[in-house]
Design goal:
The protein has 397 residues and is of the alpha/beta class. Helix content is 39%, strand content 19%. The protein has 15 helices and 14 strands. The strands form two sheets. The chain has an eight-stranded mixed sheet, with helices on both faces. α10 packs across α11. The structure holds adenosine monophosphate (AMP). Adenosine monophosphate binds next to α10 and α12.
C-alpha cells in the first residue's frame, strides 16, 4: 500500500509517498513559507529531477492540494490518482499520557490532540492543521496519527516523575514524556536485527544525535528512560538548545540581562547549545568541526562538552538497565559525524569497549563499529522516521 507521510510545521509541510511493503520512497517534497509571501513546493519524484513550483500557499489546505497535484501530475507525478494512496500517516509531536501507540484519527482523537496542545504549543496546533487539510482534500482516505511521545510511554514512574510538588503532575501533567520516539523505536528494533536477535532479549541505548538530540534506554523492547522531558529542551546539549542545566540559572540571567521568562525560554531554545557555547560560531556540527580544526577554541569546547554529555547519559542508562548490549548512534550527527562519535567512543574505550577506528569513520550506513568479539556492540544505525510512520500506519490498518 502507498502511504503518504506528512510532517506538518506551522509554515512548512514535509511529505513522502512510501510503498509501505517495499519501503521504497516514490516521491518526497517540502512546502515552505506557507502563509508567508514567496511560498514554494519542492517535489522530488524517485529517479527524476526535482521540480520547484512557486505558487502562493495562503494556508495548509492549499499546500495539501498542491502536494496532491504534484503526486498525480502527468509529468512529475508518481501515481495516477488519489485512489492509489491507501492512507495518510501524520507525525504528531505530543500524545501526552493518552496515546501509547498510533491511532486512526477521528473527531475524538482530534479533540484529544488539541487538548494536548498546551504541552506542545508550537507543534500540536500545526499537526492539527495538517490533519484537517488532508481530511478536507482526501475525505475517504484513512488518516493515522503517529506520536513522537508514544514509544516512551512504557517508562516507569521513577523515570518520568520530576522532583517537584506532586500536585504539578496531577494538575498540569508535568512529567517526562520524551520525544523522537518513532526513531528510538525504529533504531532499537533494527539494531537488534543487525545482530540477529530480538530486542525483547536485549538492553539497548539509542543516541539520536541530530539538531535536536536525545538518548533512550530500551530494555527488553520497551523504553525505560529517555533524556528529553516535558519538552524537547531537556537532556543532551543540542544544536541551539541548552539541554540539562541548573534551573536557578533562569532567574539569575533574567535579572542580569533584564529578560522575561519567555525571552529566557527563547534563549534556551534558540541561542544556547553548541551554538551559544561556541560563542555563536554555528549550530551545525560540520562548521564546528572545521572551526575547531582551524583553532577556534570555543568550537572545540562546544564539541568536547557535547561528547562528554552523551557519554554521561550512556553511563547513566547502563546503570538504569543493569548493563547494555548495544549502543547505537543515529540521526544527522550520529550517522555522519566522526568527530562526535570519536569523542563519545573515547569514553567507551575507557570502559574497555574496543572500537574499530577505521569503521567509525564510515558515514551513513548500517555498521557495527565495535571490534569483533566485543561484549557490547557499538553501531551506526541510520534512522528512517518516515518509513517507521508508514509501517505503523500500515500495521494499524
Ligand atoms: P538532523 O537534525 O538529524 O538532520 O542532523 C543535523 C546535524 O547533522 C547537523 O549538525 C549537521 O552538521 C550534522 N551532519 C549532517 N551531515 C553531516 C556530515 N556529512 N558530516 C558531519 N555532520 C553532519
Amino acid at each position: 500500500m502507498n502511504i503518504l507521510v506528512i510532517n506538518c510545521g506551522s509554515s512548512s509541510l514535509k511529505y513522502q509517498l512510501i510503498n509501505s511493503e517495499t519501503g521504497d520512497v516514490l516521491a518526497k517534497g517540502l512546502c515552505e513559507r506557507i502563509g508567508i509571501d514567496g511560498s514554494c513546493l519542492t517535489h522530488t519524484p524517485a529517479g527524476k529531477d526535482k521540480v520547484v513550483i512557486k505558487e502562493e500557499m495562503p494556508d495548509h489546505n492549499k499546500a495539501v492540494k498542491m502536494v496532491i497535484d504534484a503526486l498525480t501530475d502527468e509529468n512529475h507525478g508518481v501515481v495516477k490518482s488519489l485512489s492509489e494512496i491507501g492512507a495518510v500517516g501524520h507525525r504528531v509531536v505530543h500524545g501526552g499520557e493518552k496515546f501509547n501507540k498510533a491511532v486512526l484519527i477521528d473527531e475524538g482523537v482530534l479533540k484529544d490532540i488539541e487538548e494536548l496542545s498546551s504541552l506542545a504549543p508550537l507543534h500540536n496546533p500545526a499537526n492539527i492543521i495538517g490533519i484537517n487539510a488532508c481530511k478536507e482534500n482526501m475525505p475517504t482516505t484513512p488518516q493515522v496519527a503517529v506520536f513522537d511521545t508514544a514509544f516512551h510511554q512504557t517508562m516507569p514512574k521513577k523515570a518520568y516523575l520530576y522532583g517537584l510538588p506532586y500536585e504539578y503532575y496531577e494538575k498540569y501533567k508535568v512529567r517526562r514524556y520524551g520525544f523522537h520516539g518513532t526513531s528510538h523505536d525504529f533504531v532499537s528494533k533494527h539494531a537488534a536485527e543487525m545482530i540477529g536477535k530480538d530486542r525483547k532479549d536485549l538492553k539497548i541505548i539509542v543516541c539520536h544525535l541530530g539538531n535536536g538530540a536525545s538518548v533512550s534506554a530500551v530494555k527488553n523492547g520497551e523504553c525505560v528512560d529517555t533524556s528529553m522531558g516535558l519538552t524537547p529542551l531537556e537532556g543532551l546539549m543540542m544544536g541551539t538548545r541548552s539541554g540539562d542545566m541548573d534551573p536557578a540559572i533562569m532567574e539569575y540571567i533574567c535579572k542580569q540581562e533584564n529578560l522575561t521568562a519567555s525571552e529566557m525560554n527563547t534563549v534556551l531554545n534558540k541561542k544556547s547549545g553548541v551554538y551559544g557555547l561556541s560563542n555563536y560560531t554555528s549550530s551545525d556540527f560540520r562548521d564546528l568541526g572545521e572551526a575547531a580544526e582551524a583553532g577556534n577554541t570555543y568550537a572545540k569546547d562546544a564539541l568536547d562538552t557535547y561528547s562528554y554529555r552523551v557519554a554521561k547519559y550512556i553511563g547513566a542508562y547502563m546503570m538504569a538497565m543493569g548493563g547494555v548490549d548495544i549502543i547505537a548512534f543515529t540521526a544527522g550527527i550520529g550517522e555522519n559525524n566522526y568527530q562526535v562519535r570519536r569523542g563519545v567512543c573515547d569514553y567507551l574505550e575507557g570502559m574497555g569497549i574496543a572500537i574499530d577506528d577505521e569503521k567509525l569513520k564510515i558515514r551513513g550506513e548500517d555498521l557495527i563499529v565495535s571490534k569483533e568479539g566485543s561484549k557490547i556492540q557499538v553501531m551506526i544505525v541510520p534512522t528512517n522516521e518516515e518509513l517507521a510512520i508508514a509501517q505503523q500506519t500500515l500495521a494499524l490498518l
